[in-house]
Design goal:
The complex is a heterodimer of chains A (about 160) and B (about 280). Chain A is mainly α and about 160 residues long. Chain A contains 5 helices and no strands. Chain A has helices at about 1-20, 45-55, 85-90, 90-100, 140-155. In chain A, helix 2 packs across helix 5 and helix 4 (about 90-100) packs across helix 5. The termini of chain A are far apart. Mean pLDDT of chain A is about 90; it is low at about 1-20. In chain B, about 40% of the residues are buried. The model of chain B is unreliable at about 1-20 (pLDDT under 50). The longest helix of chain B has 13 residues, at about 1-15. Chain B has helices at about 1-15, 60-70, 75-85, 95-100, 125-140, 150-160, 175-185, 195-200, 235-245, 255-265; strands at about 30, 35, 40, 50-55, 115-120, 125, 210, 210-215, 225, 230-235, 280. The chains are: A mainly alpha (about 160), B alpha+beta (about 280). The interface of A and B includes residues 77, 107 and 124 of A.
Chain lengths: ~160, ~280
């Protein structure tokens, strides 16, 4: 019995050690919807961010937003505003806040919170329809959020 | 900052492309029955939408055409299978559905009022529950699996004989508490994506979500034959899929939550024609 519990614990401990600099989802500090401090201290990679925004299995942001720069990715949704020019409209800190938890910037926003692990009703295990288990984590990792923010900052008109 | 965004959003919404709107088309079944696919919202919804619309209006030209003619509607093959089951005696009593109900046509008018409060049982019953009640207590037969093939085929037969009749479920009296529970669920933002039925089907119908054209999520067309899985699908299976897509733990088909949700969602379509078996993507 004890053994089965050991493995995940060991994993959690080691991943925590590696990312000691990272700000955990529960520790993010908001100021008027913005998050000033980088979640990782490592500069975001805009090319990786571009992939995350368009990729169905990652951010899938185009499910709801249109982005002209991502015209090579088929089917952009219309639930949220077009992201062209987002880098003009918002500062880096504001963009980070929106991606981490858009509900802090826009009250009751339909936009999912990409770096949050608490406060859900009936959270599931990804798209299985089953209850969340101990593998439950935020939709994007801290560095993925930084990459997305770096990409959004390049969207200028 | 927030003010600026809402001004921006307003301009975005105003410039939404027209092609995402529901089509302006009329569904005439077998060149005979004109279906109501769009009508004034029932009173209990007047504060949220003006009109209620069938999912048929949100589908492509070919899909819409397939549903207009029984010879082109693959769902009707399953209706024929259910007609056979209707006449087949099963269980300890040696009875079939037809032993008590004669023709399936005698069931016209039943689908539109379900889910419905059953006085004797003191509960709101879906059509599936009523079918299984007959199987167990009238026929002495095994109940069917809630959303299994036999059951969904039978509900398609029962819907088919009511096509064109307006959905008309009761939401007051003894059904009211169940209806309220369903309403609560409809507006609850579930799962890691924190989306409610209303997030997609009330706030955003007519919009694209990735490659899907969002409808009002009405169930007047259920069961529905989906081109995607080439079989009939129950309303509860659809609810399950939609909740799963919010990265949530779903409820089970036939669960008290889904019975309540079905009553509530059905009531949002009061006035629309029964269409089942409909055709959807």
């Amino acid at each position: 019995m004890k053994l089965t519990y050991l493995a995940p614990l060991a994993f959690a401990a080691s991943s925590f050690a590696v990312n000691a600099e990272e700000i955990a989802p529960t520790q993010v500090a908001f100021d008027d919807g913005s998050v000033a401090t980088s979640l990782t201290g490592v500069p975001g990679d805009a090319a990786s961010g571009r992939n995350i925004v368009g990729n169905k299995g990652l951010g899938n942001c185009v499910a709801c937003h249109q982005v002209t720069d991502l015209a090579d990715v088929p089917w952009h949704g219309e639930i949220g505003p077009m992201l062209d020019g987002a880098g003009d409209r918002w500062s880096e800190a504001e963009l980070r806040g929106i991606v981490v938890n858009a509900k802090m910037m826009f009250e009751d926003s339909l936009m999912p919170s990409f770096y949050k692990t608490e406060g859900f009703i009936r959270p599931g295990n990804a798209y299985t329809g089953k209850a969340a288990d101990e593998t439950f984590g935020p939709l994007l990792s801290a560095q993925q959020v930084e990459d997305v923010v770096a990409y959004l900052a390049t969207l200028k008109e | 900052m927030k003010k600026l965004t809402s001004a921006l959003l307003a301009s975005v919404i105003a410039s939404t492309p027209l092609w995402a709107d529901p089509v302006d088309d009329t569904l005439i079944l077998n060149e005979e029955i004109t279906m109501v696919t769009r009508t004034a919202a029932p009173a209990h919804m007047a504060d949220v939408v003006d009109e209620v619309m069938s999912g048929w209006l949100f589908r492509g030209t070919e899909t819409r055409a397939m549903q207009a003619d029984d010879f082109d509607n693959p769902g009707m093959i399953f209706v024929e299978q259910a007609e056979e089951a209707w006449n087949t005696a099963e269980g300890s009593e040696g009875k079939s559905c037809s032993s008590c109900h004669n023709d399936p046509a005698s069931m016209a008018g039943v689908r539109p009022v379900y889910p419905k409060f059953n006085e004797k049982a003191g509960e709101v019953r879906t059509l599936e529950m009523q079918v299984n009640d007959c199987r167990e207590n009238q026929m002495g037969a095994e109940p069917w699996k809630y959303s299994g093939g036999d059951m969904v085929n039978m509900t398609a037969l029962l819907a088919s004989v009511s096509r064109g009749m307006p959905v008309n479920v009761a939401i007051d009296g003894p059904a009211q508490s169940t209806w309220e529970a369903g309403k609560e669920l409809y507006y609850t933002r579930t799962g890691q994506l924190e989306l409610a039925c209303a997030s997609c089907h009330e706030a955003n119908y007519g919009m694209m979500i990735r490659a899907d054209h969002l409808s009002q999520g009405q169930i007047n067309g259920f069961p529905t034959y989906r081109l995607k899985n080439t079989k009939l699908n129950s309303a509860h299976s659809r609810f399950k899929g939609c909740i799963r897509d919010t990265r949530a733990e779903t409820f089970k088909e036939g669960s008290p939550e889904f019975i309540a949700l079905e009553l509530y969602v059905a009531s949002r379509g009061n006035g629309l024609s029964v269409e089942g078996p409909s055709i959807r993507n």
